[in-house]
Amino acid sequence: MTPTEAPAAAPRRSAEPLPGAGDSELLSPEAIGLLRGVGRRLRLAWGFAWVQLLAPVVVVTALALVIIGRVRPWGWTEPVAIAVTVAGVVAVAIGALTLRIPLGLSARATDRGLATRDAFATALELDDHDRDGPFGSRVRARADALAEDRSPGEAVAVRAAWGPWAVAAVAALAAVTLGLVANPQDQIREQQAAEQALVAEEAEALREAAEELRADPAATAADVALAERLEELAVGLDEAQSLDEAEALLAEAEAELRAAVEPDLLAQKAAAQGLDKGLASAPLPATEGGDAAAQLEQAAASLDQRSAAEKEELATRLESLAETQAAGNPEAADALDAAAAALRSGDDAAAAASMTTAAGAQRSSSASAAAQESRQRASGGVGEARQRVAKGPGSPGSGEGRGEGEGEGEGDGDGDGDGAGSGQGKGQGQGQGQGEGEGEGGGQGQGGGAQGQVGGANGSTGSGQGGQGTPDGTGTNDAPAVEQDPTVFDPGVATDGETLDAGGTPNGGDSTEVGKGQGTSTAGGSRVPVSGALPRYEEKATRALDQAKVPPSVRSLVDDYFRRLAQR
Amino acid sequence: MTTTPTTPPLPAVSPERYAEIAAAVEREIGRVIVGQHALVRTVLVCMLCEGHVLLEGVPGLGKTQLLKTLSEVVDLEFSRVQFTPDLMPADIVGTQVLEEDESGRRTFRFGAGPVFANLVLADEINRATPKTQSALLEAMQERAVTVAGATRPLPRPFLVMATQNPLEMEGTYPLPEAQLDRFLLKALVPFPSADDLVAVVERTTSGAAVDLDTVADVPTITAMVELTREVPVASHVLRHAVDLVVATHPDHESAPPGIRTYVRFGSSPRGAQAMVLAAKAAALLDGRPNVSIDDIRAVATPALRHRLVLGYEASADGVTADDLVAGVLDQVGAPTAGLRGAP
User: Fold this and answer.
1) Model confidence band, residue A132 (pLDDT cutoffs 50, 70, 90)
2) In this complex, is the C-beta atom of A139 within 8 Å of any C-beta atom belonging to chain B?
3) Are B160 and B72 found together in one domain?
4) Does residue B265 share a domain with residue B219?
5) Residue B131 sits in which domain range?
6) Per DSSP, which regions of A403-479 are E strands?
7) Beta bridge partners of A472
8) How far apart are CA A278 and CA A136, in angstroms?
């Protein structure tokens, strides 16, 4: 569309442009006033005609967008519908204001509107020959006479075509009505926004974790690489288009980090930390303390100053230490065994070399365990994030459950009679509860069972197992169904369990104590996803193993337990 | 050898006087010709444009009578040529005649033919052979004739007013396209209404003779012809005439379907010239000092109908040139102001 839409190639009697205001002197002021009024009227008619033409199109388009916004969870439809309408009005208004309407165009419109048989157009186009000829004055006089008592409105009538306006009105009414009625897609949009916020929150958490890793003064190259991986994951989450995509990224990162953790990390860590702590509590003879590696190096350096008895004592101690390292740090165990053998054979140099080797293996194992532990923690964090993302930001369900727990404890006691021994008792209680949901979406209730504890007496070793509760619960959950990972009872959040005491006899030999516990569950919250709880469980178990003198057989049992869980 | 006659000064004729004279001519003709107002107006327009006119109609409708009456009313030198199959070109333009004077000396003298007149009535022009018809070509276009190497101008104004019977009648020779193009307008003479026919019968069967008044002489008519050409035309009006002519060409994008189907060749540029010139005369006859779109469209049919070369499909389907010109008028339409929302 051109502003004037006048025939561009219209031949003219001269090469002059279309008549403009300069030709107004050809006509009387009244005629020129009429033509200028017609020009303004043309501007109005042009705008009205375009609005009339575009109104049905724009309004129907807006209605279509509003309808789309009610069947699809797109948040842009209604704003775009408003924008399209406003843009149409603004475009027409700007077009009308900037429209160029020369006087010649007004003259032609006037001629047609007033049926003046081209009097005004001819009057404006008179050339010099015409003006001086017999017709110039007559043409002007005729135009002036025709302009008398005529108004622009007579020349340019603005007429409404009711068809387009009816269509536009009906469509506009429908669009406004649909815009005011509650949109079922609003809840989905809010859900999507919450999902985006959740993913962004997880990404921010990953960045913070990466920043912490970088900020740690003792950060190793592995820590820096891990930080970079976490930041990369955060970027990926930022760009994720859906919750599923974010979950897939987190799952991939979790699997990648978990794969970097060796299955016997617990044993490695237990061996490394056990050696350090064992030697911290009972340092090697003739050493100045410090960590295990330092003590081994000190002992190796001072062998030539030791007596035979001291060397024998050292060899015995090294053999004992080697036994503790067999599972988690075979290299150190072999070196310690070799050192002990060399000491007994009198080969101090070989013994010193083996002890130095053992010190290096200890350091290497500690560093490896620390790095893997970082990855494991990161894996756990990513796993928890994945769980949160998988669960989604849906409105929390309410559940109510009741559970009863029943536990059994069994303790073994072993004492030497003088009360100098040490013992440990350990018990575990489990309770489970399930509720059945009512209403839309189904429900779940959880209840914690009793926690059983077995207290080991002096010189005894006890073990116990808590009972299981079977709750009845009813609950409602309006949240969308989300596939849940297997859950496990978390004693850290369970309450109201009864304490089960299955203590062994403090002295006097073996004893067996069987305890039973019964507890009530706690409604909701006592069960957590396995993948989320496993790293914490493992860490606590490792810490427990490190803090006590646990026989290697028990350590292996615990290691095997968590390894099997991790493999699931 | 070319002879240039001396041109006397023309009387001043104002547009108002122009209209008065034309009205008087129409009024005087109306005293003889019953009805046929449109036909009279068409003939008058041609005379005021100094354009040739071709009247087509069956015998007995007053074609010849109309032209004879016109010549009497305007006091133009009138000659009539009855075209027949044995008519020779020299019978129209004249010939060299060998004369012997009293002394016995023989010389050739040009014997002017009937074409040497202001108003030449070529009656039943399509009864002559094409050779004879073509004798009028130079006279109509150049307003001069060449005989024995000498070009002789014809008196001004010079108008050929030809009549012809419909082509499908026996013993006729269709006019060649080049000669048809020389006619400013072609008018179809309609059969009069019953009331008009009653008046015709009464007038032609009674003894009363009509004494016509001469309302204009040759200089006055010449001045009126010149005044006609002075009428101003707006550019978009000219453009509309051109658009109409262009739309008669079957290969042009603006041509309506009928033109594409039935027309072999569209109008020549003379069609646009004829429309504009005739529209000027029509505007003056209407008392207006300028040409309007309506004037152009009003004369489009008589100006274009004889300029379309139709194919045999048109004859087979009974489509006439008038039908096709009407289609062109519908297709092109009167130009608007060119702005959405404008009239």
Assistant:
1) confident
2) yes
3) yes
4) no
5) 11-86+116-206+215-228
6) 404-413, 424-426, 434-437, 452-453, 461-465, 472-476
7) A402, A434
8) 124
In which residue are the tokens 């013993």 written? B171
Q: Are residues B189 and B277 in the same domain?
A: no
Query: How many separate domains does chain B show?
Result: 2
Q: Give per-residue pLDDT as tens, A471-494.
A: 343 333 443 434 445 676 666 554
How high is the mean pLDDT of chain A?
Answer: 73
Sign of CA dihedral A490, A491, A497, A502: positive
Joined tokens for residue A381? 């964090």
Domain of B262: which CATH number?
Answer: 1.10.8.80
| Residues making up chain B, counted from first to last | 343
Tokens read off for B314: 């048109």
- d(C-alpha A247, C-alpha A184), whole Å: 26
Instruction: Find the length of chain A.
Output: 568
pLDDT score, position B100: 86
- Taking the alpha carbons of B20, B26, B31, B37 in that order, is the dihedral positive or negative? negative
Residues B64 and B170 in one domain: yes
**pLDDT computed for residue A447 by the predictor:** 36
**What pLDDT score was predicted for residue A526?**
59
The token pair that represents A406 in the structure block: 């029943």
Looking at the DSSP bridge assignments, the partners of residue B82 are B123
Contact assessment for residue B289 and residue A138, using Cβ atoms and an 8 Å cutoff: yes
Q: Is residue B96 part of a domain?
A: no
Instruction: For chain B, say whether A159 makes contact (Cβ under 8 Å).
Output: no
Cβ of B236 within 8 Å of Cβ of A156? The answer is no
Q: With 0-12 CB in 10 A as exposed, 13-18 as middle and 19+ as buried, what is B186? A: buried
Give the CATH number for residue B39: 3.40.50.300
Write out chain B residues lying below 8 Å of A122, CB-based: 232-234, 237, 290-291
Q: Is the pTM of this model over 0.95?
A: no
Angstrom CA distances, B214 to A195, B7, B119, B155, B220, stand at: 103, 22, 15, 19, 12
In this complex, the residue of B227, B230, B342 whose CB is nearest that of residue A156 is B342
